[in-house]
Amino acid sequence: xxxxxxxxxxxxxxxxxxxxxxRELFEEALQCYTEAVQLQPRNPSLWLNRSMTxxxxxxxxxxxxxxxxxxELQPDNSKAHYSRALCLQxxxxxxQSLKSCRAGLKVQPDNKALQQLQNVVKRTLAEPPxxxxxxxxxxxxxxxxxxxxxxxxxxxxxxxxxxxxxxxRKRVLTAEDKERRxxxxxxxxVDQSACPASMLKENDLHDIRGKAKKTMYQWKSExxxxxxxxxxxxxxxxxxxSKYEELTTTKDRHAxxxxxxxxxxxxxxxxxxxxxxxxxxxxxxxAHVDLPEKFQEPVGVLTLEKLKKYHSENPDRRYFISVxxxxxxxxxxxxxxxxxxxxxxxxxADITWGLFAGVDTxxxxxxxxxLFKAKDMGxxxxxxxxxxxxxxxxEYGEPVGYLDLYLRENELPEPPLEEVDNEACCIM
Length: 428
Hints:
- The chain is mainly α.
- It has helices at 2-22, 26-39, 44-56, 60-73, 78-90, 94-107, 112-126, 157-167, 175-187, 202-215, 226-256, 268-272, 304-308, 334-337, 352-357, 375-396; strands at residues 300-302, 320-323, 326-329, 349-350, 401-403.
- A hairpin with a 2-residue loop joins strand 2 and strand 3.
């Protein structure tokens, strides 16, 4: 009877944690999952949820330990292997990360997130970063087949679970810690693969969610009119733009008082890791850029073929990127989008589907779908795309053109939702 009561309470705590996670209340979610695993320490889903929450808080060691326990309790859980592999990569333990990738791909060979991470880790290992300490204990990671071998002297799985519940506790952050973390995020430019909405305060995101949900899908038919689509996208984009402007002010204040701001550009090993979510550092703007003669000159409505002419190696050095049909002139960042930059595959292309799907490999550019046909997933992911649209708007100014395909978005096909990475940017 006691075990049944514990199981029921643990599930209640899990549901509470899930709700708080969706509302971006990660510290409160962590507390719920922590209490739940103390009641049901052999439930792998609780450890995995706890790992994902610790990842959101950038607590990589705790997140890795939680994912390790989840993968040991459920060796066929590819998400647990991915979570552990990502944490190990963030900790610089590349050999162990690669082993976890292989273990996950053994379970699910077509897992795109694991494939992507494995490729990044392999490239990084081929040319080891100077600043990342290579893992010297890779032979101590659990066997890829999920057997009970462990890194703590061969203790049993039961002992490891018991020890895990004892040592993994919620970290209590002071108000000063929270503000330091928020300002630190504000002072960094958003990288190409982490959702910019993650920089906003939780209460700001809550306001945006509330307004978006009141408006989202209030039309009677399943196929909204072009005017309804434009209204919704503008509303969400404007809300994000306003918040990013506030954040920029905070960043500028922080930068003014900060000494020794790093200005070095990416090393080769950093460029190799750019496709990984959260796997690279922001790039400071160059001190001087030789702008092209027609920088920011409007170009009107372009076809896809004309957009492609503004690629990273075009002789005029005008670099264009399309986000949800809005074409931005990013020529003032040749360090990012020029021929030697890390984002050359995005230049002269539309990147909307990659932002929606959460996958930033070259095969996800210039693919066009009606995102409103994604139904329930659409109302979440469209908000994420609009958060990116607002960020580009704030970073690069008014769009210089528009991609003609989005003038008839409702004629585009339904998106292949099986390609979507559900762990990627989603603020709803």
